[in-house]
Amino acid sequence: MFLYPATHNYSPLDIVKETVLDLDNFTLNSEEKILLKDHITVVGFFGNEPKKSSTIALNLKELVYDKFKGFKKFQMVILMPKGTEEAVKELKSEISSYQDLRFWHFVFGDPSDIKRVFFSLKTEGNLSSNLVTNQVYIVDKDLNQRGRLDDRTDKELEKNKPIYGLNAYNCIEVAEIKNKMSDDLRILFTEYRQKRKGEFNSDTRRASDLKSE
User: Fold this and answer.
1) 139-156: pLDDT as tens digits
2) Rounded-to-integer distance, Cα 9 and Cα 167, Å
3) Element (H, E) at 85
4) Contacts of 115 (CB under 8 A, 6+ apart)
């Protein structure tokens, strides 16, 4: 899969929220830690009954993970309540088909810590009582949440409709993942590639920028 060309005629992916909490209180297993810092991460929440999120998981695997798993510093991290370890093993068996899931991590923590990470994101709504949501979030290497400050269509722009953003991606909506989320991740990887080459000269828009427009 190709990234966008190394020219400057594209808009970097906006920062919709800064200072997302990292995963210091979560463990992959009894010893290993997985952190958001210095990674490009898709963050999700599958709750107390992860097998009920199998549609979300399959959509993510086929439309996001399989496309981006070879990209440097990419990872997918799902926050799970402690006690769901066996159910997660069953879900992983269902979605893996003997394929490589080494960049897809299920990390376990207390419900209070899951909620703290969730509320550090800019969200549309809340977690369910089972700590699950159909939405996933993009977090960059500096713990900034990425998305679109202005997600209006061309027709909506022509009609001067009110600004609305895109902070999360609904994994039930295949078109949203396949089109918007895939495009946004490609743009973010292009930004980091250009930064490594010293070619990135454009300032990324932040949510605070909208207040001055």
Assistant:
1) 999 999 999 998 888 888
2) 23
3) helix 85-96
4) 127, 131
Residues in CB range of 174: below 8 A, 6 or more apart: 59, 63
pTM, two decimal places? 0.89
Q: How far is CA 50 from CA 89, 95, 118, in A?
A: 10, 12, 17
For each of the domains in the chain, give its residue range(s) and CATH number, in order of start.
14-194 (3.40.30.10)
For residue 76, list its beta bridge partners. 42, 104
Helix, strand and coil in the chain, % to nearest 5? 35, 20, 45
Report d(CA 42, CA 55) in Å as an integer. 16
With 0-12 CB in 10 A as exposed, 13-18 as middle and 19+ as buried, what is 92?
middle
- Helix (H) / strand (E) element for 88: namely helix 85-96
Q: What is the pLDDT of residue 70?
A: 86
